[in-house]
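Re: beginner question about structure tokens

> Can someone show what the tokenized structure looks like for a real chain? I only ever see the sequence side.

Sure, here's an example I had lying around. Input first:
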Amino acid sequence: MRRGNRERFRKFTAITALAGTLVSGCVRDRSDVTYLGKEKRELYRSHAMDVAFPNVDEPLPSEVTGTEPPHTILETDEIPIREISLAETIQVGLQNSQVIRTAGAFLTNGNPLLASPQFVPSVYDPAIQASGVLFGSRGVEAALSAFDAQLASSMVWGRNSTTQNSTIGLNPFTVINNETGAFNATLSKTMANGGQISVYENVNYLGTSSPIVNYPSSYAGATGINYTLPLLAGAGTEFTRIAGPIGQQFGGLTGVSQGVLISRINEDITISEFETNLQILVRDIEDSYWNLYQAYRAYHTAVTAKESSLLTWRIADLQLQGGVRTRAEVAQARDQYFATDAASINARSNIFTTEIRLRRLIGLPANDGTTLRPLDEPVTAQLIPDWYTCLTDSLTRRVELRTQKWNLKSMELQLEAAKSLVKPQLNFVSGYQVNGFGNDLIGYNQTVPTGNFYENMTAGNQTGWNLGFNFNWAIGFRAAMSQVRNYELRVAKAQRVLAEQEKEITHELAVSFQEVSRAYAAAETNMNRMIAARENVKYLEPNIREGTILLDELLRAQLRQAEAEVAYYQSLVQYNQALNDMEYRKGTILTHNSIYMSEGPWNPEAYRDAKHNADARNHAIDGSGVLESVPEPFASPSPVGGVYYTAPQAMPGAVPTPAESSNSTQSSPIPKLEEPLPALTEPVDTP
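And the corresponding structure tokens:
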């Protein structure tokens, strides 16, 4: 009875406490509750999402913290000039281009450096691809890891007590105590031909109080080896190096693109893409360099025109007092002075803007206290390139073609691997094992005839083996056939795209040829125009001082002179930019500027291993002409194939054949004008 009373008391207490909690929760006013000294409203949020900032505190680059206010036209002090050559400009740009910038993306809403920084090209891209581990972007090391030896082991102890509900050899309800231990170890490796070999050892311990066993403490297990080899689908070294081991694939997830060859090709594609972006960077740097040169020349012309207009205004004002000029002519001279003054202001501001663009490309601060000024003069010699030589360079050295050929090679290899899967899966399986048993693991007990476990195993009296085949046939092969058809279409598309790229490059080179000829002809014509305009002004000035002609003629002549000078330097800069563009279209812009790519340093141990392997190969027997590579090599250190031309039929004005053409440079330079680039000190003159 006492026990029953205690149980009823506990139930009554629990029900009372629950009822009190529910009643108080419904009626209690919690407005007077404080939370550790805070008001309740401070802990209340009426929304789930809010703008937050990441807890990242990266140091700002010195180009940001050390920059000064940008140059503007409001500055009246003389600005220090830093003369820089084109070679130095490119060198500085390459040193500061860990992340590659482009000229066309600056000041645009879709600037990838700001809108999608994860896709911006950088020097890290080849290394990122080489160290990739995800499906579709695996590097060579990750692909080779499929062939790494795998060691798996486990050691598990246990104890279990059970009551035996049996009277056979046991007392009723006898408790049996079992102590167990299980050791398992397996060393497996996948071979290059797709086969898998594994060596294993299993040792199981049993200590029991059961009276029906011979030994209360015993060890049992086996040591063996298994070997599996695919014979049809996924068989062979060629499939494995393209798609990876078939035993490690996951249905339609991995496809046939996880092998070492595809990973290597992906690395080559990444290197090609990096080289393409590097070529664009060098082209943009040189174009911006000549744009800055043109900006300085335009400023020099604007300042000269302003000074000439000021002098003309002064002369007209003096002649007005002598009754030679009218007020309308003086007003016209004053109007042209202020027009040239505005042009000089715009030209000076354009220098600052163009310089900022060049500084951005080469990674310099927006303002380091100096102003960049080109040191080199543009090329004035006429270049007459050979069409067939340049076309050959374009078709063999354009990185875009190399990239597409890598894509085509990758598709062709994957197609071959996909064809291998249009077969049933037939695997050869085999195994051999040696069993062991003993009362002790390694000890010795004379009373036990079986000996210890390892003694019994090494005797080799208890063995086992298995030999056979595993067969799996997806009747119809619809998934495999669909995959083959998909790769056939992708190969056809890659081939067609490659042909279209070659035609596109031919048209680009043709336009580049035309632009070189046009720009040189325009520069030559504008030079003659500039000389004539200067002579016109030179011979009109004495007549203006004598008052024999209208002032309007001189003002118009001065304006034409300024326009002619601007047009000449603009066409001269365009000619140099056309030469730069032609090198880019040929794919030789890097070698033209003595730029070569190389990888960074490796671990010193890698160089020692490579030297050791090279020494071993030097002492080997030469196998050239005797050995044959199977499968055939998928890469070559130089372009494969040749470029062949079909000469057109002889017609008036037909294009000459390669034998009739010559790769020469005709040296008929435009005369250089010995006029230095101006400083940026704005003169302040008044009439």
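Each token stands for a local structural state, so reading them left to right follows the chain. The chain has a mean pLDDT of 85.
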